[in-house]
Amino acid sequence: MLADWLIEAALYEGFPAQKTSIPGVSQRTGATTYYVEIFPEKGARPPVMALVPSPGGIDLMAASELVEAGRAMQNAFITPERTTLVASTHRVYATSEKMLPTDGRYDAEKILEAAPKVAQKAVLFDMSRMARGAGTVINAVLFGAMAGSGALPLSREACEQAIRGAGKGAEASLRGFAAGHAHAAGEKAPAAAPPPAVPPATASERVRREFPIPLHTLLDEAVARLADYQDAAYAALYLDRVRGVLAVDREAGGEPGGWPLTREAARLLALWMSYEDVIRVADLKTRASRFDRVRKEAAAKDGQIVVVTDYLKPSANEIADILPPAWAERLRRKAGPGRAVKLPTSAVSGFLAMRLLATLKPLRRRSARFREEQALIERWLGAIKRLGFAALDAGLALEIAQCARLVRGYGETQRRSREAFVRILDELVENEQAVARGAEALALAIRRAREAALVYEECQPAPAARAKPVIWMKQG
Amino acid sequence: MERSFKAEVAKLRLGAGQTFNGEGILAVTKALLQSGVSYVGGYQGAPVSHLMDVLADARELLDELGVHFESCANEAGAAAMLGASINYPLRGAATWKSVVGTNVASDALSNLASAGVVGGTLIVIGEDYGEGASIIQERSHAFAQKSQVWLLDPRPNLPSIVRMVEKGFELSEASNTPVMLELRIRACHVHGSFETRDNVAPRHSRRNPVQKPVFSLERIPLPPHNYTQEKHKIAVRLPEALKFIRREQLNELFAGELRQVGIVLQGGMYNTTIRALQQLGLADAYGASRVPLYVLNVTYPLLPEEITRFCTGKRAVLVVEEGQPAHLEEAINAILRRADINDPHVVGKDVLPVAGEYTGEVVLKGVGDFLRLVMPDGVDLKHVDAVLDGVEQAKKRAAELLGMPVPTRPPGFCVGCPERPVFSALKLIERELGGIHISSDIGCHTFSTLPPFNLGNTVLGYGLSLAAASAVGPNFGKRVVTVMGDGGFWHQGLVTGVANAVFRNDDGVLIIMQNGYTSATGTQNIASSPDLRPEEGNPIAIENTLRGLGVKWLERVNNYEVASVADALRRAMTAPEKGLKVIIADGECMLERTRRERPIAAQKLAAGERVVRTRFGIDDDVCTGDRACIRLSGCPSLTIKDSPDPLRTEPVTTVDSGCVGCGLCGEAAHAAGLCPSFHRIEVIQNPSGWDRSCTDTTRVIGMGVRMRAHPGVTMVRGWWRRMTCPGPIHHPGGGIRAAKAAACSPTGS
């Protein structure tokens, strides 16, 4: 559509113009690239126009997504002598970036930093958001930004005529065009509302008294979460636990770095202590704020009704998790696959069923999983403290702390990564021989094993370490 | 197919002296009508699908002219259709994607070329080479050479292309030989203009049929006529063709002052070469080049005397020829030596790459290196160096600044695609039964070979997957799974695959993806397309066809129900009975379905009727970001975003606004026992009173909140807490804030 507008605008000006495209498969998936040439001389006899872009010969590169701009840089389609780059800064992630259980996103900062260095001029902003604001498609904003950048030999009138000529949705497109044009031409956009001022952290009394200031926001958040998750006593237990880690951090000189060990351990501990059992899930899914969020996400208008149906499959194991240990044992022994339920949470019946489950919260303390989690947490914290103190090495302690990233998720995925976590404890952290090799070697081994556990078969190319984390076997 | 091509059809009606504005492939379509074709056929595929799509929509115009149009069963069918021109003076055209389509067509093509034609026949081949093509990379040139079919490769501008279509028919008739017109993908999609002529009603057509059959044994490839046919090609048809090409000046010579050098190039490479010369300061915007050019709009056969005349007296000649082997370069060398002209150094695949597409950068560098090598008088080599170094520097600098290559964006299944869930199920079955050998086919489903599925061990051709599994099966320790689309089934798979497998009692599993169209080529109709109108054809059901062939084990599944697809696969893999087990995986192409349903929904909405819009969502606070869902489905709508939770540093998974509500993510979460984050969101627009009364969430929540405050409930809650909580409770009730304060009080522990 953008290429059609360009051609129409060029014809309006009386300039010879040509476009070609390479559609992705049947113009749907993959990246579709367009190449347009405009010969900015009125009524010129037909020039010879190329069908493929040539490096060093591009006046304007437009990218409707940031990594596409990076790709154009790689191909030398953006050169400092000639090219104006107009790109949206939002990201549409590639599958390879999305499927990692960690954060596999390409570092987009690199492209933002490179842009002004490789291009003659770079116009970069989030066009996706602007398009949403104007109720139109990203191409309209992009077209506006291209025109506003001054790199197009086309008048604004010609561009707007081209949009009008395309008919359908022209009004919305013109709005988007105008917004993009203004931004690229450097006109001050009406000052966007400043981000809501963050209220100064009102750290609760105990946090203020016992913990250094850089940790207050984090700990406050965690305390609120755990009090909500279980009760006040549970939140207090959390702070006790963090204090133990802080002691290691203090001994190992973590203060100048802003307490990296305590920060990471406290964060992971809060997530771990608020592990997602069926009670928690039922609670989260029946909050008024959740229904508001869903409405907003689905862009439901006033007067429209939103029906929410939850896809749940509580397995026997997950039910056993919330039972007292003895009962859980019995249920787990004959565990089969769970039963798939599509629960109409927004209907009265579904809502009440979920609420009922959520009210079991107080019983959680007596559940099998609660005990197991607390025991494993203590084991993990014990290792952090023991090895951290012994080696006075916050780096090693941090490696151990970060292993708690493996304790998360649901079902099979959770089981697998939890096994890996326990294996790291068994074979490295609590293995005398492994420990005897020194803090540095141990830290490296732990990191390798942790990373190996986070790599899945599908995430190709797999790092060499995938199959074989460094493991010292216990002897005799 | 639901898309309409009305605007394009209108362009086909333009008359003498009017200006056509549009795509290259549509210009070819118009040129066919201007040439008075009696019939057109072909098989869809990028980049020539558009020709067929538009003609399929131009029934009225074709009826007026009496032109017969059909979309053929496959390319072999399309080539065989051209047999109408062997005995009768009917002009005909066929089109397909090359080189894959030419492979399929080659049996009929050989016979057609051998017999020769009396009516002009033109084969429009869309050359899908480089540029992200999803087919094997070979040249069509060799087919033209081995069958003695003339090959046109026009300069990629509309007037040139149209002229070559028209001249192509004349050439075909003058030499009694079929002619191929080769168009690269960008030439098909180039937007330009040309002056039209009136359409010409064919001499013989449905309106004025041929009355008497022509019998001529010389046209039959039996001895001795197959021998005389070959000799006739060389003795008569080739000289006639050369005479015509020379007389009509189909190849073009552009003089230039730098006479020491010259460039011989394929017509299709003209614009790219001119751009390279411009960048090197050797040509102007209108194509006036200082280097002489000899442009081959006909790349087979070559005119030896034109080649020798162009090369004589030059120090070096550059051949710009895309693809390998270097047929042109070798032929030019041979022509020169045979004429005993030994001076000009013929340069080609030594400065240009032997293999791979000739992009702007490649040609620029090749022409530059040619000049640096030959150093002709009057060329500013410093400028050449500066241009080439500039490109090199820009690349190097970008690589340095970016640090690592940006992620690639390979094509994949669309949002809501009905084929994706089948591969989710297949993946689950692999987890259960261990690795499976999967024989893949051509079609959208070939994307299953890419992450996150990585399913599919071989691809051997369109509709050939079952045949490709025939020798793996007996030599493999487990049943082999074959995937075939309904497009591939009708193209080739029915006979080559299924019939033979049933006949031999093969013990494999075949999944037929029944999405209703040849979706990868632009959702054209096939024999089993849903809702065919009578004029589009007689529908044939795949299921009946299979039963008729004698397939006994046959199941039909709804693709979106991942668990039941997995169950069916498990049954097929473990069934005790031998013989072919077929699963028809049923799910209409989402692209077509949305095209049909969206306007209806919009209409209803405008009329104030009840319309339900469905999409899926993920609860941010329930998702722990393990990405198991993405690895199991790979839906483009399933993506990631920064976690709104300050305690989580890694992104959470989210469903973006592109979701069409197919339900795969939820079903996959069910089937694989993933997380409980997924939910279906139905937005009821123009809700009825009944909707309001049953699903008013705010009332339910309000009720819950009111109940909490009820004195009786508070009492019970207090008791419940005392019973279940250890330790003293300092602030019973009062919500989060009070609880937080309690946690932070010194006695809180």
Automatic annotation (TrEMBL), chain A:
One of its GO terms (molecular function) is oxidoreductase activity, acting on the aldehyde or oxo group of donors. Transmembrane segments: none annotated. InterPro entries: DUF6537, IorB_Oxidoreductase, Pyrv/ketoisovalerate_OxRed_cat, Pyrv_flavodox_OxRed_cen. Pfam families: DUF6537, POR. PANTHER family: INDOLEPYRUVATE OXIDOREDUCTASE SUBUNIT IORB (PTHR43854:SF1). NCBIfam families: PRK08312.1. This is Indolepyruvate oxidoreductase subunit B. It comes from Candidatus Desulfobacillus denitrificans. The lineage of its organism: Bacteria, Pseudomonadati, Pseudomonadota, Betaproteobacteria, Candidatus Desulfobacillus.
Automatic annotation (TrEMBL), chain B:
The lineage of its organism: Bacteria, Pseudomonadati, Pseudomonadota, Betaproteobacteria, Candidatus Desulfobacillus. Residues 614-645 form the 4Fe-4S ferredoxin-type domain. One of its GO terms (molecular function) is metal ion binding. Pfam families: TPP_enzyme_C (PF02775). This is Indolepyruvate ferredoxin oxidoreductase subunit alpha. Signal peptide: none annotated. PANTHER family: 2-HYDROXYACYL-COA LYASE, INDOLEPYRUVATE FERREDOXIN OXIDOREDUCTASE ALPHA SUBUNIT. The keyword Glycoprotein does not apply. Keywords: Metal-binding, Oxidoreductase, Pyruvate. One of its GO terms (biological process) is small molecule metabolic process. InterPro entries: 4Fe4S_Fe-S-bd, HACL1-like, Pyrv_Fd/Flavodoxin_OxRdtase_N, THDP-binding, TPP_enzyme_TPP-bd.
